[in-house]
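Board notes (copied after class):
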Amino acid sequence: ATSMGVKVSKPFIQTQYFPLNFEKYIIVNSGGRASGKLYPLYSDVIRLLTPILSQHGISVIQVGSPEDIQILNTLDLRGKTNLHQSAFLIENCELLLSNDTACMHIASGFNKKLVALFGTTQPENHGAYFGNKENQINLVSHRIGNKPSFSSDESPRMICSSRFS
């Protein structure tokens, strides 16, 4: 890929096997170090998706740090995988649903289907760099016409907006 005249090679992402007792799954990552990037409604989203996913034999895994908000109705792997094991899981998932996090960038490196939520950042600056853009959906608040604040404690938190583009 080329950006501003600089060629950026696709990264090598080291993986490490992590055992699961099912094959088809999506991953959700609710993490992020800045509170303005956090989306508190993942449990509601998963509750709505679970019947459809179950019909297709698809499980839901949560990865991230132990401090991340726990998402109900998922296999909770927060703090139970290292970076390489998380990369293995992402490489083999059907879809990643995530805030603007490292997992989003790992998924783009593997050209995985990806739904990314952006709060205090914009996909033009912080979005997935690699992978087929047709595999990537970026959900961005309309921000009531305002630009992102880039503040870690944005107030009001615009990622909670019910209006996405």
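Comment from the instructor: The first helix runs from residue 42 to 55. The two ends are 26 Å apart (CA to CA).
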